[in-house]
Amino acid sequence: MTSPLSGLSGAAAAAAAGPGAKEKSKTLGDRDTFMKLLVAQLKYQDPSKPADSTQFLAQTAQFTQVEKLEGIADMLKGQQLITASSLVGKNVEYMDGDGVRHTGAISAAKLNGDSEPLLRIGNTEVPLSKVTEVQEITPGGTDATTKP
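Predicted structure:
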């Protein structure tokens, strides 16, 4: 007997996961889909021709590797937020979309979903990656400049 989900991958596998999969985060949907396919593969395999253990171990290793990479990505997002929040109250130089350099004081930092943090400089929201220079104002009134 063959698996009803065999041969499905990518978008077809996501569609087979059910209509509620789009409501979940993409990461959770991918994990759930992978596990559903793996369980279906084991459930419907032919007992006289079991799945190749090497292939099974490779799939398990890939799943573990993806989970570890997602953890690293989450840590990097957290690090970006910490970096952005540490810049609040400092003067920075940044480049706008036209390539023109501007300076200003950061009044707020916010995390915008899955994208990089945004810094509020005056009435403008600037992505963290556009900051080219950080200037910390010292009590004596001089600027101590650092490059990010």
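Summary: Residues 34 and 90 are 45 Å apart (CA to CA).
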